[in-house]
Amino acid sequence: MNKLNIIYEDNHIIVADKAAGTLTQGDYSGETSLLEMIKEYIRVKFNKQGEAFIGLVHRLDRPVSGLLVFARTSKAAARLQKEFTSGRIKKFYLAVVENSSEINPGWNRVENFLERDRDVTHIVPAASSRSEKAVLYYLELLKEKNFSLLLIKLDTGKKHQIRAQLAGSGKPVTGDKKYGSKNSAGDSILLHSAWLSFKHPVKDEMVEFYSAPPAIFRKFIEYNSEELAENVRNLAENFPVTQVCRD
């Protein structure tokens, strides 16, 4: 079992750093999920009888690593869910992508219509009764040989959205063989939830969290950890205002 890595907790929220290969929530496999690990952690820490309440308000795909916030009360869960639905929560991802072409400087916008077929998300040419509009922005931070390190901002939160849209743009996430990657990264793909900022559900203050990408990123591209952290923070805090799509 992967080790539980909690980076912040109070009486209302828990922020955890999920390891790649760990389920966010339990499924048919019966493997222990991050949600179950956190429930057990709270049960033991506070000597609770029975199962502890932990509210799940967003998810990461199993092979994706990085930041997730969980609610410790139903009130916090409802308020966080509202923040996610409204788009006020800022989430930024880091990804190493396979890329042999030039990327325009600054933020690049990608808009597609997506459809789900079993466990794969497909880009379709036009809107339909089965499709959903998906919008994301990405910025190239570094390039080395045929790999680029991207910072990604979602405007919509569709399942496998980043993976499908980047692959459709000719830049599959490294290790993501489901979406066309030619490289292996074990149980992971090189997609990491690196930045999370939001208004605390109870305290009247903004909270911000950064998580450095896992070591496997360096197998494909080199970077200075301190410079990367500072760059992500500055870009996240100064991301240009856009019209957020919620349909």
Number of domains: 1
> What is CATH's topology name?
Pseudouridine synthase
Radius of gyration from the CA trace?
Answer: 18 Å
* Uncertain spans: 243-247
Which percent range describes the beta-strand content?
25-35%
Our count of helices gives 4
SSE order: EEHEEHEEEEEHEEH
Report the helical percentage: 10-25%
3D architecture notes:
With 247 residues, the chain is of the alpha+beta class. It has a single domain (6-237), classed as Pseudouridine synthase (2-Layer Sandwich). Helices cover 19% and strands 32% of the residues. The protein is built from four helices and eleven strands; from the N terminus they run E-E-H-E-E-H-E-E-E-E-E-H-E-E-H. The protein has helices spanning 34-45, 74-86, 161-168, 225-237, and strands at 6-9, 13-18, 55-56, 65-71, 90-98, 108-117, 120-124, 132-144, 147-154, 191-199, 206-210. Strands 1, 2, 3, 4, 5, 6, 7, 8, 9, 10 and 11 form an eleven-stranded mixed sheet that branches. A hairpin with a 3-residue loop joins strand 1 (6-9) and strand 2 (13-18). The longest helix is centred in the N-terminal third of the chain and has 13 residues, at 74-86. It is globular.
Set out the fold topology.
Blueprint lengths: L5 E4 L3 E6 L15 H12 L9 E2 L8 E7 L2 H13 L3 E9 L9 E10 L2 E5 L7 E13 L2 E8 L6 H8 L22 E9 L6 E5 L14 H13 L10
Parallel strand pairs: 4-10
Antiparallel strand pairs: 1-2, 2-4, 3-4, 5-9, 5-10, 6-7, 6-8, 8-9, 10-11
